[in-house]
Amino acid sequence: MTAITDPLVPPRDRLSRARALHWMLAAFLLLCALASLQVGAADVTLTALLGKLVSGEALSQMERVVLFDIRLPRLTMGILVGAALAVSGAAMQGLFRNPLADPGIVGVGAGAGLGAILAIVLGALLPAWMQELTGNHLTPFAAFLGGWGSTLLLYRVSTRHGRTSVATMLLAGIALGALAGALSGILVYIADDRQLRDLTFWGLGSLAGASWAKVFAAGPLILLSIGAALMLGRGLNALALGEATAAHIGINVQRMKNIAILAVAGAAGAAVAVSGGIGFIGIVVPHLLRLRSGPDHRTLLLNSALLGASLLILADVIARVIIAPAELPIGIVTAVLGAPVFLWILLKRRGMVET
Amino acid sequence: MTLEAQEIRVRYGRREALRGVSLTAEPGEVTAIVGPNGSGKSTLLGAIDGTLPHRGHVRLNGQDVSGQPAWKLAATRAVLPQASRLAFPFTVIEVVRIGLQAGTAGDRPEVPMQALARVGLAHYADRLFQDLSGGEAQRVMLARVLAQVWAPVEDGAPRWLLLDEPVSSLDIAHQLQVMEIARDFARGGGGVLAVMHDLNLTALFADRIAVLAEGRRVAFGPPADVLTDDTLSRAYGCALRVSAPPPADIPFILPHAASA
């Protein structure tokens, strides 16, 4: 967060500055990761463990479990989810040419929410063997299918003759969101108390369910999608000038849209599936970075991944320690911290413009 | 090695905006497209630059453009749109650099500043594009387009500037400046195809003029042949007289009389 002091950067060296920021943010991510391994509900600290390793002492069973089976998968998941949400946000903002766009705009949120609610409320109706097979992965799996499915549906609706209209996509997204909301409402209406509680917590988001199994299920898709999104920098820069101009500059606009939408559906869909509804990362992170080092997507996307990952695991640390041994849903932390920071930036910017 | 449009037809819904227009622009020349509002000038340019679906053929330096990849076309021709809105707070120099990446001068980092200097805005390099006036923004976009096809001739083949009303929001001094840039590009061996609104500037700078009316080409040729009382009066639907001085008591200002 130290990297967001002065929005009035001399623009001349913004590109080299943004590249230097890669390293600063990577270092910041490392710090946050160490903090995340250090603290938690159990009385196990990284420093104590390192001390033991140095003196050649063996780790206790409990220490090993806490470090390798609880904190490390959770940290990995946090990095993946934070990076996925922030990169998806930056890519959608570039594609829709609007700094307020986020993955929700392509239906990921609404579809994933509906999928999750379906799984929570109607999951018990599945035959026993299916319940056994899916175990507690049914909700994330359904959320992913919902997010992915609704994105593809929106994409089909707004593509004619091989051209995707982002304006149609935006409007169709609103309609689809309302429909998903209504269906979710029906399910909420018939849900029992325990299911309602599960639903609420799913919506608030959490990394508490992190496990290596989930990391290995969601990780490859998230990494692949982020990798694809990182290639879009030059194209998204050109798209800032409008679709026609981007084509005149030599960008294959339709192919870029395909990649961007599929990458976002993959990254954000998988992230939402394993962590629930975590807001604000996708909008705040790219915005902060644009203020700091300009809107050049060639650096913005990677910086978003690094800062998004850092901030999410930092928020997770706070969620774990603030009411320990219980923990707060992380979506609450990101909103409580993200919203005021966002407002403060807006007010500060306004003040500077007016004076 | 020309820019050739053949029997271009464009429909907007039921309305036929272009009813089979052909023209050939030569390298080394400024070719202007003029005509009344709604005659299809910008539509023709949009068909030629590939933005609008159309029937007919467009050949760039002898090759049909349909099916050519965008990056390949971008190396040969640059397009200046009528107006540009920018989505994010890029600076002026960053916008021009986006043009440079598109062209083949990508290994010449000095080109964007030279292009900005060419349009007289080198001192604006670090300003935010969004803070510029309409005329300044248009000149920055021209610099971006110039950076894309910086050398008018490359590997023996001419490159092309397609300009859609390049002087529409400029004052008279900058109108002349921009038209001189276009003419210099043509003198350097490149080709320029420009949609023009101002008939005086067109008369002054164009080597060849296509007059459109109601989606058809009604005249095509050098200014002296095309800019006649009869052709213009018919195309614009009002009685016009070429080179007739106005009554003595009303002042008039023509770009022909300007000197830097």
Distance between the termini of chain B: 34 Å
Mean pLDDT of chain B: 92
Q: What is the alpha-carbon Rg of chain B in Å?
A: 18 Å
- The proportion of residues forming helix of chain A, as a percent range, comes to over 70%
In N-to-C order, the SSE pattern of chain B is EEEHEEHEHHHEEEHEHEEHH
The CATH superfamily of the domain at 3-32 and 43-76 and 149-203 in chain B turns out to be: P-loop containing nucleotide triphosphate hydrolases
Number of strands of chain B: 12
User: In terms of structural class, how would the helical and strand content of chain A be classed?
Assistant: mainly alpha
Radius of gyration of chain A: 21 Å
Largest sheet of chain B: 6 strands, mixed
Mean pLDDT of chain A: 83
CATH first level of chain A: which class? Mainly Alpha
- Can you tell me the CATH class of the domain at 3-32 and 43-76 and 149-203 in chain B? Alpha Beta
List the helices and strands and how they pair.
The complex is a heterodimer of chains A (355) and B (260).
Chain A: H1 14-38, H2 46-54, H3 61-96, H4 108-122, H5 128-134, H6 138-157, E1 159-160, E2 163-164, H7 166-190, H8 193-204, H9 212-230, H10 233-239, H11 243-248, H12 253-275, H13 281-293, H14 297-321, H15 330-354
Antiparallel strand pairs in A: 1-2
Helix pairs in contact in A: 1-14, 3-9, 3-12, 3-13, 3-14, 4-6, 4-7, 4-8, 4-12, 6-7, 6-12, 9-12, 10-14, 13-14, 14-15
Chain B: E1 3-12, E2 15-25, E3 30-34, H1 41-48, E4 55-60, E5 63-64, H2 70-74, E6 77-80, H3 92-102, H4 111-118, H5 134-148, E7 153-154, E8 157-158, E9 160-164, H6 172-187, E10 191-195, H7 199-205, E11 208-213, E12 216-221, H8 223-226, H9 229-236
Parallel strand pairs in B: 3-10, 3-11, 6-9, 9-10
Antiparallel strand pairs in B: 1-2, 1-4, 4-5, 7-8, 11-12
Helix pairs in contact in B: 3-4, 3-5, 4-5
